[in-house]
Every structure is written in structure tokens, then in C-alpha cells.
Amino acid sequence: MYEPKMRLNEEEKDILAGKKGETYAKMMEVLVRYGDVFGADCLKAVTHQKAHFVTSFGLGLLKAVYPLMDELIEAGCKVEGGFTMDPRPLDFKDVHCNPIEKLVFKSFMYNRQDHYEEQLKKIGLQDPEKAFSCTCYLKEMGNTPKEGDILSWSESSAVVFANSVLGARCNRNSGILDMFGAILGKTPNFGFLTDEGRKATWKVIVKTTKRPEAQILGSAIGMKVMAEVPYVYGLDQYLEDLPSEDTIAYLKDFGAASASNGAVGLYHIDKITPEAKRLGESLLKEDAKTYVIDDAELERVYASYPLMWQGKDEDSYRCFIGCPHLTLKQLEDWADKVEEGLKEAHRSKLAIDTVFTASPAVLEEFKKEERCAKLLSRGAHLSYICPLMYADNPLCGKRKLLTNSNKLRTYTKARYRKDEEILSLICGKEGK
Length: 432
Description:
The chain is of the alpha/beta class. The protein is about 40% helix and about 15% strand.
């Protein structure tokens, strides 16, 4: 039996010793070994019972996953509070695919999707028709931790939002490891779970003349601080206090960009995020480095993004808006902007095939509004898909994709453009 370096209570020792069965013992050993590597002193009880996992894709290549899931099921393992998952990879109804693509996606790439989802249900997947989204923390999804909650979550944009905007505590772990943690109700105590690990090592001062694009600001900070913790000054002049829907949407996109363009798992926004409001500059370490961001710095970062395909933006095959998934407020705002943009361009239909992505629960609410019918009548599509999984595959990798998501740009060949540029392009205003 593995001899842990960390302190375990009697229950944890018993599980590690196999008194609850071999499968539970192996899960406990994985958690303990992982914690020991990172210097954890003990295991902390998970206090927010509903988990969130990133591994939502039934890829045929992930052959080791499915026997592991079978072992968990046979051992009676279950996440008692239930869990949500990252978005599904396929949506043939609202994201058009040609017959060859459908065949490859369904029969080869994601040929274990249905089987995998059945396995997930057996260990606690909540309402399967509504559970798949990377924005599980939105109120429509029903998986919103409170400040101080200990989580066993994976998915970089969800973790950074939970840590920063909600004030919960979670490390950036792997999907399988967090599944083990959620089943056991334990997670190693290190990093962002500790007060010291939540202190900022960077002082970021925003000195822009207008509200910076969330995606570019997050990108700039992520590339500068990497996996460290930034404390950001100056955004309070542009953002309303939480729980403003506009601020939630802004910080969602900001955090996703910082997590994907770097490896940020926690940030503090002066006078806005809960720990910054409560603790202020005491969150800054004495030797914190300084990074000043002005208009010129944002333009420098934007200009540094590589163009992964040749041709004009107008030649794009498809535009994805919503990575991470859009909030209801963002969907409403985009619908209004599209309507006005098309009117200005004297067009009735979008110039580029455009897919707005959001969680099934958010889409359900949006479809109750007149805005939704208008947006669809303009040629737009609504989907719960994961744009990243659509774009990051051999079939679609050569497609000329456009996006306002820095996360999607980072992981695929999609071309990033600012929100106002995207609006002009999809409404056909460019070149007029």
C-alpha cells in the first residue's frame, strides 16, 4: 500500500487500505499521490456537491476511458450531488455538416458518444438534455457554487470563473482526477484551496481610454503572467458591481482568454470580485511584479495573433460566437446588434454562416423571446455545440473559420476578430 506524505483521517486511511473495495482504494491512491506531488498537507472535503467535468467527448481514440468508467459503475461509484459536463461535440441539426463529415464524426471520431453518455448517467450525470455546457455556473444551469465552497471541477474557463468571480476554491486538475475527487468527496489541499495560494504575484494596471475588449485583455494578461495570479486595477471604472449580468459576461470571457492564452486559474479584480472587495491589497504579495496595460499594449497583443489561413475575413466558411457559451444577456445583445447591423447594411440575411452557442438551458430561455425568432429569420443558427471540438479535427481544420473567442483562436486555426469587427463582417458591412 502506498505510504502517503500528507495527513489522512481514519476514514481516508481505511479507503486507501481497501476497506471500501479495490476501486475506491485506487481512486484514493491517485488523489493522495497527486496531492503529495504538489505538497498538499491533507485532503479537504468537497463542500459544493455538484461537480463539473471536462471530458464530455466520446472519442473513439480514448480507449482507456470506457473500461475505467465500467469499473467505476461496477463498484457502485456515484457522484451523489450529480454533475454537469462540457458541451457535446455534435449538433447535426443546427451546425451543418456534409454527408462525409457526418459519417466520419458519427462513425469514427465520436463513435463512442452514445455509449459514453450512458456510462455518465450511471455515475450521476444530471438531466442529460440540459447538463452539457462549459458555463455550468450560470443561474440557468443550476450549478453555481458560493464563496468559500471547495470544488472538484475541471474545465479551465469554469475553474477560473468559480475561483475568481464566485470566490469558490478549486485547482486546475484533470477531468478524470476531478471525477475521482467528486466520487470520494475529497480533493488535495494545495494551491488555490489555501489562503497563501490565492495571493497575487502580479499587479496589473489597466490604463485604457475605454473599456478594453474582454478577450484581448484576458489574452494579454494570460500571456504575461502564465499560471500566476494577477490582481487587476482599473476595470472598476468600466464594470458594474456583481452580480450584474454584463459584468458576469465580461469576466467569463476575460477569464477564459487568460486561462487559454496562459494558464490563469484565479484572478482578482479590484473593487469587483468578492475576495478583492473583502481583502483588497492584502491579497498582493510584497514582491508582486507590475504590468501596465494601455491602448497601445492591447493593440500590440491583437496584432501579434497569427493568421492561420490565407484570404479575406469575408471569405470565412463559418463564424462561431460563444466559446465559452454565451449568457442569456449576450444572446439578447447580439440579436439586437445583428438586427441593427443588417438594417445599416441594407441586408435581410447574414453574409456569413454564423452559429451562436449557449447552454441548452440558456437557449431554452432565449427561444421564448421574439428576438430569437428574428435572429433565426436572419439566417443565424443556435447550438449547444462545443465550437472547439468542431474546429479541432482533420475534416474542419482547413475550414476558414471566424470567431470572437480567444480560446477558440488559441486551440484551432480560427481567426480572431473583435466584436465590432465580427458584427460588420457577418452583417456584410465590410467594404461598403
